[in-house]
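Subject: Protein entry, chain in single-letter code together with its fold tokens

Category: Structural biology, sequence-to-fold work with a learned token vocabulary.

Notation: Tokens come from a learned vocabulary of local backbone shapes, not from coordinates.

Start of record: The labelled sequence and token lines come straight after this line.
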Amino acid sequence: MSGLSARVRTRLGALELDCELAAPAGAVTCLMGPSGAGKTTLLRCLAGLHRAAEAVVGVDGALWQDDRAGLFLPPHRRRVGYVLQQPALFPHLSVAGNLQYARRRAGGGPAADPTRIVESLELGELLGRSPAGLSGGERQRVAIARALLAAPALLLLDEPLAALDLAAAGAILERVRRLAGELAVPVVWVTHAPWEAARAGDRLVWMEAGRVVASGGVGELLSRLDVGRTLGDEAGSAVEGRLLRHDEAHHLSVLASAWGELWVRRLDGEPGDPVRVHVRARDVSVALEEGPPTSILNVLRLEVLELTEIAPGEVLVRLGRTSRDPAPALLATVTSRSRDLLGLSPGLPVWARVKSVSLLRGA
């Protein structure tokens, strides 16, 4: 497979890491799971910063580590771009100086086009500035550009957007996903935010207690009840579709989804463009009847697939067209009282209501 292939076993304190990971070239693979699952430790093992007890790590056919064969490439010989939550830019260099340093350090791989990187991450107006005068989002954009200009064979991102606001984070997400595809670099992105995975991820890998317990499409995994139970209040669904049209008068867009048309806040793009939106479970309500028109624009005819109690008095409901439908499901959070009053059970037809303002823009 073109990209990353790794098998890692190690122990760090109480954590016993034992997992396999594959990350295709040109795609963003998101790592998620509860705190302490081993996500950051896995990234450090891939970068060679933590010496695993037993590991095989290869990228694009080049073997970086095979402990049984006595092979271990040190970190400085692995073509890895590593971006952390707090970027470590050189304070004595300008933005341009930081980027030039990365270009000088590049080796062994095809050089990225500096002009393209600067344009994609909108750094042109920042080149003469000092890192001390940049915002958090600007510093992260510089850190990502510096990592890409070093011609990495693998890009590792460890919660790079955790300290940023939604607008700044969203802009970076889209640029990184686009650049990963253009440069054919495998990206492994650690995040605790499901909306980040829904917006940027091509694949999702779920980790618990040092093990990979599930992997697959983002929509498929986010709509699982066990994943939703762990995410709690942040549980939600990733809905893929295509942009149909814009309603300029009301600053809305309409997209085609597996469940029908969905109204969302105005999106950039042209009709036919692929779109992914994140729907939080707490923003989905459930009713037994369609009812009269309300301020909620999205009313979907679905069926209860399964449900589980995730906290005292709180129930997570998985909705879809039918139990045999392969399309990702929609999650809704209701109270246990609502479950009992409505008689919610698998197979029951219901109406799901989703506010257009609660749909977060995706890819």
Summary: The chain has two domains: 3-216, 236-360. Residues 236-360 form a domain with the OB fold (Dihydrolipoamide Acetyltransferase, E2P) fold (CATH 2.40.50.100).
